[in-house]
Design brief:
single chain, about 210 residues, alpha+beta, 4 helices, 12 strands
Length: about 210
């Protein structure tokens, strides 16, 4: 009955009527601690999943254990066209497709590609509070070469932040300051206004 109800509640996505047959990345809200299971079910249904994980050490009274945790708890990403949305909503553990009140909203290919590159790099990666403004930098060497994101200086080191703006969540990777060049300097804006990134500046070395 629950699956039938989910299917009956599917709205008409008029905003994407012109591209319902395009393969796009979407974020799915899933049941708590069901991220890995949803990924397996999506794959079995012929839908391309992406559920990134990171490693974190947790201390108990008698030992320290390394755990593999989702970078985006409660979410999974999937690449599909909207003609297959019913198939996606029928996947066990999926609650809904993230978007506006009426329409699902796709996640950009650039954001997905950046997160995939971070996870595959082998560098320390972790969830980070949502970042939407700051100095925009490019990594010029190493496994994250060509990746761009916001620069954060924390605990004496550098982190490059990639944000998924739809979810208002970010991911951080530790990097060497010598591997960074400045692309755009943070711009001052009146309170309450989002930043508009302007013309790229000449790359310059950065310090953290």
């Amino acid at each position: 009955m629950a699956d039938q109800q989910k299917v009956l509640d599917v709205p008409q996505y008029s905003a994407f009527s012109q591209e319902v047959d395009r393969l796009l990345w979407f974020a799915l809200r899933v049941k708590p601690r069901h991220e890995r299971a949803v990924s397996h079910h999506l794959e079995r249904a012929g839908i391309e999943p992406f559920v990134p994980f990171y490693r974190s050490k947790r201390r108990w009274s008698d030992r320290i254990k390394e755990l593999e945790l989702p970078l985006f708890p409660g979410y999974a990403f999937a690449r599909f066209n909207l003609l297959n949305r019913v198939t996606v909503l029928r996947v066990p553990g999926v609650q809904h497709i993230v978007g506006s009140k009426k329409d699902p909203v796709p996640v950009t290919e650039a954001e997905i590609s950046a997160i995939k590159q971070m996870v595959a790099s082998g560098l320390p990666v972790e969830p980070w509070p949502y970042v939407r403004v700051g100095d925009w930098v490019r990594i010029v060497r190493g496994p994250l070469r060509e990746l761009e994101g916001f620069l954060i200086q924390e605990r004496g080191g550098c982190r490059v932040i990639v944000s998924v703006h739809l979810l208002q969540r970010s991911v951080a990777a530790e990097v060497d300051r010598l591997d960074l060049v400045l692309v755009r300097r943070r711009e001052a804006t009146p309170a309450g206004r989002s930043i508009t990134l302007g013309t790229r500046l000449s790359p310059a070395p950065l310090r953290c």
